[in-house]
Input
Amino acid sequence: MKHLIIGAGPAGVIAAETLRKSDPDAEIAIIGDEPEPPYSRMAIPYYLIENVDESGTYLRDPKAHFKAQNIEVVQQRVDKVDTGKKNVTLADGKTRDFDKLLIATGSHPISPPIPGLDLPQVHSCWTLEDARNIARLAQSGSNVVLIGAGFIGCIILEALVKRGVNLTVIETGNRMVPRMLDDKAGGLLESWCKQQGIGVHTSCSVESVTAADGDQVEVALSDGGNLSAALVITATGVKANLDLLDGTGIDTDFGVLVNKRMQSSDENVYAAGDVAQGVDFSTGNQEVQAIQPTATDHGRIAALNMAGKGDEHQGTLNMNVLDTVGLVSCSFGLWMGVDGGDSAELYNADEYQYINLQFDGETLVGASSVGKTQHIGVLRGLIESRIELGDWKQKLMADPTLIMDAYIACTQELGYA
Amino acid sequence: MQKSLHIDPGKCTGCLQCEMACSYEHTGTFNPSRSFIKVFTFHDEGRFAPYTCTQCDEAWCMRACPVDAISIDASTGAKVVSDDKCVGCKVCTIACPFGTINYAQTTGKVVKCDLCGGDPQCAAACPTDAITYIDADWTGYDRMMASAAKSLPSAETTAG
Output
């Protein structure tokens, strides 16, 4: 059996390892087009903070791991996928055959149509190459403008602050991380950032970036403001890497449409991670999640099914955890709530503490929090288990911090029964 | 035979010796807030439930880790965090559906139960045998794992 994986991110690497366990005799190859060994974009903020060097971002020990697992890692771009002949063509013209193919090509950063984003002072923050450019230009005392206060924008704030730059963040939404946090939580992040000396403009967009004196650029804002900057970072979302599938006839939408086995409309082609549009646990719809836990779950489910040992999965839960200059926030599932559902919250703006729970009937379906680091994973447990909370719903409505107590009381035998 | 922590909440008196012992073993201080095992108190019913990582087979934390910082200790089966590799990204803390791997602001790393390398101090400190360290196939432990697993439908398909 020949398993071919396009993409050397977490989804591809987990898939390769799972395949090796499930199908010890198979030929397994990962093809990735970046020059570094397989690495994790999640670790880039910590590379920018200088907590780790580049090798600290590697998904596995590149010298020993893949060889020991008998997984071939090929550094090449794939130019073409031929599902009829069941082969792919690499940039060097060579072809590789497959029995099962996994598309784990990830996503790429997208930029809004703002004039001047092609200037050399403007960088996205996605690859290690981007991170090197940011590290080079984000010098102490320099002015930096960050376009977009989404997940990626927020997670690199700490690194930029620690580099001693004068930082201004521009967000078109009415709050920070609008696709992960509600008004109150986003508001807490904004006041926290301002307290750290970061300029934050919400409900504001960048109209243009133009070259100015020296190595500076001028950034014109929709609120009439004008900022001078040595570096402009764009963090305005990502889009699935689907170009490779043009002409294959494989069904795509925002990503590769896959069933509960991560299988595309072609039975020999699977997809996982940011490029896959798979079933969402909460809605039952096919959605692109583009998050690390989903990438690894996708990779594993796809691999088990490629090896003929898998099953249908229940859908992946959308969830995020974010550290914004030391303030930790997270959200899970339907954190905005459902029609007719109850909600509970605790909000203490002075202490930067927030927790919000969303119920559908007796079950928890979504949650978000700010300033909480203990036991937050149990929110996933409560949601994915679809536990009927019974009496504990009222207890959580009265005190939403009792999430761990509720989980234990509903799942464990407590004795004395 | 690999051993596992077995917790019998019915025997727990809420004395918190386990939290003290865990905290002392891992941080050198008697500070229950830094313990990896936590005793939950249900005042209405007069019950206590010590709770920590079950070293589950799914190893959600290990699988979600983007930098290979969590590995299995071959001798104990514990999933162990390498401080050298952990970057503090916290993805494992939302991936673990049991809430038993947590971020420690003091160190900038995540922390979890490591079975103290095979001599768990919580069990040693427990005066009532509410926490014991016993053969993993003991039926009570299976029951505990099953009750945790049944709560997670997605665990079944990804358990492989």
User: Anything to note?
Assistant: Chain A touches chain B through 69 residues (CB under 8 Å). Residues 392 and 406 of chain A are 6 Å apart (CA to CA). The two ends of chain A are 53 Å apart (CA to CA).
